[in-house]
What we know:
The chain is α/β, with parallel strands linked by helices. Helix content is 22%, strand content 24%. β3, α4 and β4 form a beta-alpha-beta unit.
Amino acid sequence: MKRRDLLKAAAAIPVIGARADVPPHLWQGFDFGSGPAVRERLNQGPFDVDQDEGWQTILFTTASEKPLRNPGLGLVGYTWEEGGPSLAARAGRETLEQHVQKMASLPFVDVLYIRCDWRNVQKRPGRLELDPVWALTLAAAKQHGLRVAFRIQLSNQSFQPEQLALPEFLRSRIPLVKIGKIPGQNAGEYVEPRYDHPEFQKAFAELNDLLAAQFEGDPLIEWMDLMQYGFWGEGHTSDYPNPFPDYRTAERTFVSLTARQLETWKRTPLAVNTQPDISAVGNRQVLDNAVRAGAWLRSDSIIVEEPIQIEELANRPPWLASILEDGYFRESDSSKLSLDAARVNTLENYMLHVLDIKTNYWAMWTEADNLAAYNEKFPRGFERLRANLGYRLRPAWVWQRKRYGAPELIVAVANRGVASVPGVLWLHLESPDGKLKLRGALDAGHPYGGGIRQGSFTLPSGYVGKIHLSAQIEMRPGVLKPVAWASEQPVNADGSITLDLKSNADPGWRKGV
């Protein structure tokens, strides 16, 4: 049975007797808190004319539509998904290394992604033993200047009943509950572990700690999907029953699994699936807890999706990124795509919808050859995504003025991308000789998608001449990564843009209004 057909059929099935602690609500206008704390907050206005002793505009830049490989956005190529690597690699027509290199070499891929089972990372207690795709993916990312993201599946119905996601050494320790027949297979029946069993809890805690010891804070890792209950680790078992004895046990267990990960992963972004609570296991409580802890959102379809997920994704707190994919076109075979009355192919129609919900990432699955052929035949889709996806920042205006007897710089950062800044944006000023260094942060999420945010610096009295302006993004507390300006004007080798502070005697200087 195809994965998306399974989800589509289940979407219409009501949840009987679910009692989530967080009631259903619109996300638009909902209070999720104020977002990440901002240290060294810049003055962000209003910048009125009182005590204005003269000013001039010293920089104004033009928005660029060129692709940028900034943290917190991009196109995602899969080196492994729940069924394995590319179809050619599965059939032996190419090696795993060739598959990974093909994906990493595509010029429009920014992030490499691994979605594998628990058995693919651990074979025995006490240590990680990663399948070969991990070393190949990490090496390819370093070689091509990409980042890596991953999900470890606690359950995966793709290989059942022959193979479970659990490592072999755990299968005799943890009770397995039969939850229903596999369509088209008379003897087959889906199996789920008792997530609440002490042996599962103990093993999961070890898995979480082992993964964190290896990957937490690694600058190569862009995000980790939360290891969630159910099929593919997405928080559901579709319209099949869950393996728990009652709802409270299910919710308590799912919330506990989530809390353990949120407490452990402080320097690497986490992403939570927005799957609705089809299986009555406490998804709304998990989602609320994760969002308040700063987890990003992800969904695994964009067109064939419940209205609730689209509303959540579109109205998420602005400082959170979102990740979208759609498995219906995982082969990306352009020869099989139909065109509508406007001559738009179906995959392009799907992918461009992610701009409507202000998304940061679009995932493209495993077929590198097909992706390259698709891009050659239908280049508009990826071009539009790369020019608009996520955030695209530039110092659109920079003003210099004299205020209270000292020079002040006011920087207006414009965001031409559809998404807000996923975290906190830091602005840095540095003199060419490195003797003067100033920095400060904007409020979380600013500038929002399509918006502008101003921030000011007070410089030492009498400072005249060059100074460099750069930006960094803090997606997790204390972890700052450089941001490339999306402007047509040239930047310096370190990514900064040069400002030229003028003397008060400069002809361009204007007196206060």
